[in-house]
Amino acid sequence: MKFLILFISLLLQQQLPWARRWGQGSLYDRWLALWQRWPGFERLGAPIRLILLVILPSILVALLFVWLESFAWGLPSAVAEVGLLLLVLSQANMGAGLKRYREHLTSGDIQGAFHCADEAVSVPGLALSSDPETLNAQVLHTVLYRWFEYFFLMVFWYMFADVGGVVLAWLTLHFVRAQEALGQQEGASEESPEQPEQPLEPKQQTEQEQQDAADDPSETVGSGNQYAGKKAQADRVSSWCLHWLEWAPARLLGLTYCLAGNMTMALPVWRQLLWKTAIDSQQVLVDVASAALSFSHEKRCWHSAAADCPAAAAELDEWQQLHLRSVSIWMVGIAVATIGGWLL
């Protein structure tokens, strides 16, 4: 049944243009804004915020779908699962953005290619650089990671933990990306040049000194340190949860890259990285995919936009074909597991 629901969801995404853009809005931002209206929300600890924003709604949604299965032979639940997968998996659709990026890159318009990548391809919280030497490599790595996070990660947890698993993975991912985006905004505001202060009149300066003396500086510093400590704690907790949610799917996808590409080169790299838990998922996937796309026993060198724009655009097609072959392998594997009775 899960294979059929997943297949229908992917088919609707390809046939219905509105379904491709359905989940690309600010649904999580609206969910977060509901909680931010509560004045005491910002004072909550990181574990409590994670429970309220991620774990609790995952449990409630899972219970809702269990309740729907008791009606009309489970048909309302199946239809709702198709809608949920359309919402979740639509964020992996980057076809239009990648096409514009390739067109700009092929024509040599590096600045236009950067703007297309920054708007349609980049992962929230992971900024791209406009440097022609590193732009294409960053886009390749970011696209690979986004395919993993918004497709393979969601499909993995849907198959092994049903609706509750995919909602938990989706909310955790957006929770972490929101924290990273907030950190980027704060870093950008700190790096912005400060406006020079206008000299004060003697009377105004005396009043300002009296006001500064009346304020308690230790209270201001203490509150700032308390906020920074809570934010750092939230980043550690959420990143730790996402790291372990991604660990098994990333290794499984790495093995898929071995099957879809040059296994002779990719399999040793995958075995070397398999049990290294400290390495993040993006690095594992990039290393294995690079080896899988190698033509010989030598390490593949990728073209930069500054050196050869058409060759750099062609390499993006190679990564996209590797992704499509991997999707096919996963779908065949899920179908076989469903026929064999291991997945229902």
* Percent of residues in beta strands: under 5%
| Share of helix, binned | over 70%
Question: Residue-averaged pLDDT, rounded?
Answer: 78
What's the oligomerization state? Answer: single chain
Order of helices and strands: HHHHHHHHHHHHH
Radius of gyration: 24 Å
Count up the helices.
13
Count of separate structural domains: 1
Characterize the overall form.
globular
Give the termini distance in whole angstroms. Answer: 6 Å
Spans of at least 5 consecutive residues whose pLDDT stays below 50 are 213-228
State the major sheet. none
Task: Give the beta-strand count.
Answer: 0
Summarize the structure.
With 344 residues, the chain is an all-alpha fold.
Description:
The chain is mainly α. It has one domain (2-185, 231-339). The protein is built from 13 helices and no strands. Helix 6 (95-106) runs antiparallel to helix 7 (110-120) and helix 10 packs parallel to helix 12. The longest helix has 57 residues, at 135-191. It is globular. The relative contact order is 0.11. Mean pLDDT is 78; it is low at 213-228.
Please describe the topology of this protein:
Layout: H1 2-15, H2 17-20, H3 27-36, H4 46-68, H5 75-89, H6 95-106, H7 110-120, H8 135-191, H9 202-214, H10 217-260, H11 263-273, H12 281-292, H13 309-339
Descriptive terms for the model:
13 helices; 344 residues; mainly alpha
